[in-house]
Design a protein that fits this description.
The complex is a heterodimer of chains A (245) and B (77).
Chain A (H helix, E strand, L loop, with lengths): L7 E4 L5 H12 L3 E6 L2 H11 L3 E5 L5 H15 L4 E4 L14 H29 L2 E6 L3 H4 L5 H21 L4 E8 L5 H4 L3 H8 L10 H12 L10 E4 L7
Parallel strand pairs in A: 1-2, 1-4, 2-3, 4-5, 5-6, 6-7
Chain B lengths: L2 H14 L20 H15 L5 H4 L5 H11 L1
Helix pairs in contact in B: 1-2, 1-4
The chains are: A alpha/beta (245), B mainly alpha (77).
Chain lengths: 245, 77
């Protein structure tokens, strides 16, 4: 149904479970993708699996120089950037009273500031093309809060306000800016939870199971598609009913 | 009109979709030609590309009229 043939998409954090699924979904719809992340091996592996139309662009979003270089490198590899998916994110969890300035700053740099800079950088091309899609991956905890994640929740909630403001500014240019907010998604990170922890989590989820990375990939694909051109400034929650907001 | 002024005029006409006779030197992009703030950013981008120059943000803020644009570009190329 959704066709992205001829479109180019930059996906950050593509070496992770969710980022890989997003890149796979966009690529499956015909897009050329640039896979960005810090670890080359998994990115290269994903690019090989996808085959044609897949490029690897290494970047460390905690490093301002690397953030500045990423859009240029991706645009050079693909010929432009029509779709930007800001998926990369880190956690530095700690109780609020124990959280260091550094734990706060690192999460802000990667999860919020780099998104601002990457988005600003791709806008010029999108404005000229009169078409563009920016999809920011947030989190259910940006809306609900979560103990131990004051920094992470603040950054994710910050993305929502930033996305709405930018959505206002560029809506008349055919550019949409939206968020996808995953709930609990089964990834290598959640595999490490004990059965006890998992069953506790599942009692909070009306759907009775964790989501899969493909659920997020499908949500991003929709928002990136031409069919979603009238959807902007919104957050699509993909959480099995865990938080109906 | 000089070549630069003609090229500036052409960009403004195309970008803002206004009548050519309205694009006079004294015309303000926002007050007379109906540009919004994002249009002015786009115009500056278009000038940069057309003339192969860089227009820094603080200079861009001083470009309010067609004449401002022409004289800035004349000084920059």
């Amino acid at each position: 149904m959704f066709d992205l043939t001829g479109k180019t998409a930059l996906v950050t954090g593509a070496s992770g479970g969710i980022g890989g699924a997003i890149a796979t979904a966009l690529h499956g719809a015909g897009a050329t993708v640039a896979l960005s992340g810090t670890r080359e091996a998994p990115l290269r592996e994903l690019a090989d699996t996808l085959g044609d139309r897949a490029h690897v662009v290494l970047a460390n979003l905690g490093d301002p120089e690397s953030v500045a270089a990423l859009p240029k490198a991706a645009a050079e590899a693909m010929g432009g950037i029509d779709v930007l998916v800001n998926n990369a994110g880190i956690t530095r969890d700690n109780l609020f009273m124990r959280m260091s300035d550094d734990e706060w700053a690192q999460v802000m740099d990667v999860n919020l500031t780099s998104v601002f800079k990457l988005s600003r950088s791709v806008l010029r091309g999108m404005m000229k093309a009169r078409w563009g899609r920016i999809v920011n991956i947030t989190s259910v905890v940006g809306s609900t809060g979560n103990p131990g994640q004051g920094n992470y929740a603040a950054a994710k909630a910050g993305l929502v306000g930033m996305s709405k403001s930018l959505a206002y500014e560029v809506a008349s240019r055919g550019i949409t800016v939206n968020c996808v907010a995953p709930g609990f998604i089964a990834t290598p990170m959640t595999d490490k939870l004990t059965d006890d922890q998992k069953s506790k989590i599942l009692t909070q989820i009306p759907a009775g199971q964790m989501g899969s990375p493909d659920d997020i990939g499908a949500a991003v694909l929709y928002l990136a598609s031409p069919q979603a051109g009238y959807v902007t400034g919104t957050t699509l929650h993909v959480n099995g009913g865990m938080a109906m907001i | 009109m000089s070549d630069i002024a003609d090229r500036v005029k052409k960009i403004v006409v195309e970008h803002l979709g206004v009548d050519e006779d309205k694009v006079v030197e004294s015309a303000s992009f926002i007050d007379d030609l109906g540009a919004d703030s994002l249009d002015t950013v786009e115009l500056v981008m278009a000038f940069e590309e057309e003339f192969g120059i860089e227009i820094p943000d603080d200079a861009a803020e001083t470009i309010q009229t067609v004449g401002d644009a022409v004289s800035f570009i004349k000084g920059a190329v």
